[in-house]
Amino acid sequence: MPNIVVVGAQWGDEGKGKVVDLMAGCFQAVARYNGGHNAGHTVLVGDERFVLHLLPSGILHEGVLCLLGNGVVIDPWALEREMEELTSRGVSVAELIVSDRAHVILPHHRVLDALAEEQRGARRLGTTGRGIGPAYEDKAARRGLRIGDLLRPLALGERLAEARRHAEQILRGAGRPLEIDWVDLERQLEEFGRRLGPRIGDVAAILNRQIARGYAVLFEGAQAALLDLDHGSYPYVTSSSAGVAGACLGTGVPPARIDGALGVVKAYTTRVGTGPLPTEIGGQAEEALRARGQEYGATTGRPRRCGWFDAAAVRYAALLNGFDTLALTKLDVLDELDEIRLGTGYTHAGRALRDFPSDATVLGECEPIYETLPGWKQSTLGVRAFSDLPPAAQRYVERVSELTGVAVGLISTGPEREHTIVRTGGAVAAWLGGLGGA
Ligand code: IMP
User: Fold this and answer.
1) Is position 324 annotated as part of the catalytic site?
2) Any ligand 1 atom below 6 A from CB of 132
3) How far is CA 90 from CA 61, 77, 335, 387, in A?
4) 223 lines ligand 1 (CB under 6 A)
5) CA torsion sign, 120 to 124 to 128 to 132?
6) What distance in angstroms lies between residue 372's CA and the mean position of ligand 1's atoms?
7) How confident is the model at residue 436 (pLDDT cuts 50, 70, 90)?
8) Distance (Å, rounded) from C-alpha 267 to C-alpha 13?
9) How many helices (DSSP H) and strands (DSSP E) are in the chain?
10) Residue 67 contacts residue 29 (beta carbons within 8 Å)
11) Hey, is 31 helix, strand or coil?
């Protein structure tokens, strides 16, 4: 049974939520392995629109076990809010398990996130302000509070005291007060522990047991390859391992149990927050694409910066992640364009680059090399077979595949589940077919 990792192959917001939701019903379990409620996965089911921040997109399928792995950072307030909202809309969250090894985002992490951004000034990262970076900092510094600690009052008190010492030290240095009632916070966290207790478990043990029984697991990445802490456009990245390898680190499932990797790409490129975006369009054309693609952040509502498809960036993501196939989303957003540009590579200081630059300043100075393809000027909304796409749209998809070196196995032609082409003979069809789904 295939265990598949779904990863964003650009700078995030590629439409992973829809792709995971679409595939989830064929798997027995869906596991999130990185990030926290900085993510925003939008899923449309019939007339209902769900925006998931922390819960795996598989939650919308009954009977699919959903897990938050140790690599996720969890704001218990945000978790409960999301669970309550889903429950009030008739979605069952009964099958949710949270790793006892996942780290907790505490209120002071948000304060530290904001302070760090303020201190960076013009070089700010444009974080989501959810406290993600500081929570991972505490994890790496070995002073983090883990979900399992919520069940142990003594450990909870000790960990909280350490977190408080550290936070107060930094904020005192910056001349800022920290208005947190730590006694009340400890009480609230104990209560979370009591309420979440039955869901807290050893995700690594559970998943490995499931896999040994032949169950198929879908690993849901958040953020994206180019926001990965190690391999992304550092420092304009998030603080977790967003790539395929993160699925192993963030759940405790060994690499040998992973059978495939799906990279999700948008038919163009977007980015929220600051940092280089070489194929950024600019001007009216970018504004028009943003409006047509409704490119506003699902978490913060910020307008997303829009660029042409950047094959150099996706080739790099494919190199790091070994994608078996790509899912190409939002093809229909390009329907009205006369011409469509495709970034095929970069030059820097007048020289063509062979490899993706590791330095964000260099990346920001890169000039994309473009080729221009004709648009198709007709609606592809809801098309369900590749052969029903206009020839110019087929050509565009094939060119994406040629330039990235990865076959396109799934194409999304609209927001709804049904607005999808699963390509016959492709890896996605094979995976879902093997699972009895396609
Ligand atoms: P953080 O993850 O809040 O620390 O933000 C770091 C960077 O990652 C910022 O540029 C964010 O805009 C970006 N980021 C974080 N989560 C997402 C996401 O789900 N989609 C797109 N960008 C994201």
Assistant:
1) no
2) yes
3) 12, 20, 35, 38
4) yes
5) negative
6) 30
7) low
8) 12
9) 13, 20
10) yes
11) strand
Rounded distance from Cα 272 to ligand 1 centre (Å): 7
Beta strands 4-8 and 325-329, pairing class: unpaired
The token pair at 252 is: 């405790």
pTM given for the model: 0.96
Rounded Cα gap, residues 217 and 259, in angstroms: 10
Mean pLDDT for the stretch of residues 138-147: 97
List Cβ neighbours of 73 (8 Å cut-off, separation of 6 or more): 35, 36, 102, 103, 104, 105, 132, 135, 136, 139, 240
Q: Is residue 209 within a helix (H) or strand (E), and if so which, with residue range?
A: helix 203-212
In the numeric block, which tokens belong to residue 142? Answer: 């070995």
Q: For residue 75, what are the CA distances in angstroms to 107, 251, 333, 414, 432?
A: 8, 18, 34, 32, 33
Region at 176 (left for phi over 0; alpha for psi -120 to 50; beta for the rest): beta
Choosing from 13, 75, 228, 310, the catalytic residue is 13
13 catalytic per annotation: yes
Tell me: the pLDDT tens digits for 319-349?
999 999 999 999 999 999 999 999 999 999 9
* pLDDT, tens only, 360-380: 999 999 999 999 999 999 999
Which single residue is written with the structure tokens 């603080």?
Answer: 239
Q: What does the pLDDT read at residue 161? A: 95
Closest alpha carbon to 267 in 197, 220, 326, 198? 326
Per residue in 199-254, pLDDT (tens digit) is: 999 999 999 999 999 999 999 999 999 999 999 999 999 999 999 999 999 999 99
421 and 385 Cβ atoms separated by less than 8 Å: yes
DSSP code, position 304: P
What ranges in 43-197 are assigned the alpha helix state H? 76-88, 107-120, 132-140, 153-173, 182-196
Cα 291 from chain centre: 22
What radius of gyration, in Å, describes the C-alpha atoms of the chain?
22
Q: Predicted confidence band at 434 (pLDDT cuts at 50, 70, 90)?
A: confident
Q: Distance from the CA of 120 to the center of ligand 1, in angstroms?
A: 16
State CA 31 to chain mean position distance. 12
- Helices 107-120 and 153-173 sit at what angle, rounded to 10 degrees? 20
Confidence of residue 70 (pLDDT cuts 50, 70, 90): very high
- pLDDT at site 438: 43
